[in-house]
Design a protein that fits this description.
Layout: H1 2-5, E1 19-26, E2 32-39, E3 52-61, E4 64-72, H2 77-105
Antiparallel strand pairs: 1-2, 2-3, 3-4
Length: 129
């Protein structure tokens, strides 16, 4: 029985040439930025690779809370927080377009996340604080 649970794990290994350190920064309200810093095998920063910033929040939809994340093109943590709203808005728009295309493709039988206009101030949803 244990062998079945381990099936497919024989080739599991870590890529020591592609290591990152992750840090989470939050305003303790609605905005979180994940800073992903490239590191070498010994844990020191790898300045040959770019630090990645990722914005995270949740919005309320008719279907419940929806986690949203988007990469932020920034050179610093401060810049990442400045660009946070735009990155999240762009990702919500992208998701909305994707859902609409899926609904059209499925002739109304596809996934429906409901009205995602709450982030614009309606009573039907918005950013969770």
């Amino acid at each position: 029985m244990a062998d079945k649970n381990m099936q497919g794990l024989e080739g599991l290994e870590a890529d020591k040439t592609n290591l990152y350190k992750e840090e989470i920064f939050s305003d303790l309200k609605s905005a979180s930025i994940r800073k992903i810093t490239p590191v070498k095998e010994d844990g020191t920063e790898d300045s040959d690779r770019k630090t990645i910033y990722s914005a995270h929040t949740q919005i309320m939809t008719q279907g419940g809370a929806l986690p949203i994340s988007a990469e932020v093109d920034a050179q610093s943590l401060g810049e990442a927080f400045e660009k946070f709203p735009e990155a999240i808005r762009n990702e919500v728009e992208r998701l909305r377009d994707e859902v609409q295309k899926q609904q059209i493709a499925n002739a109304g039988k596809g996934m429906n996340l409901g009205n995602m206009q709450g982030q614009q101030g309606g009573n039907e949803g918005g950013i969770i604080t």
